[in-house]
Design brief:
By secondary structure, the protein is of the alpha+beta class. The protein is built from two helices and two strands. A hairpin with a 2-residue loop joins strand 1 and strand 2.
């Protein structure tokens, strides 16, 4: 167990509005965190694929639509920030 994070993989700074997670700087903890994240991602993807099959949705097409919506959202946010910034100057 790591002395820095006590085996949690991160330390936390607490604020009045919430907390901030600070990843542990130890290489062993970082490697463990990456493995856990990879396993979690695989489990999540399996659940999504299972749900898609249950509702008759093509998982590849569903993923593509989600990525497109995310990209469209980012572009809209960028445009909004440019508009706000140009008016602020």
């Amino acid at each position: 167990m790591c002395d820095h994070c006590k085996g949690h993989g991160a330390t936390y700074k607490y604020y009045s509005f919430g907390h901030e997670s600070i990843p542990c700087p130890e290489p062993a903890c970082q490697e463990r965190n990456l493995k856990q994240a990879e396993e979690s991602s695989k489990r999540t993807q399996a659940k999504i694929n299972e749900a898609c099959e249950r509702f008759g949705i093509d998982p590849v097409k569903f993923r593509a639509e989600c990525l497109k919506e995310i990209e469209d959202s980012y572009q809209a946010d960028r445009k909004l920030l440019k508009d706000v910034h140009s008016r602020a100057v």
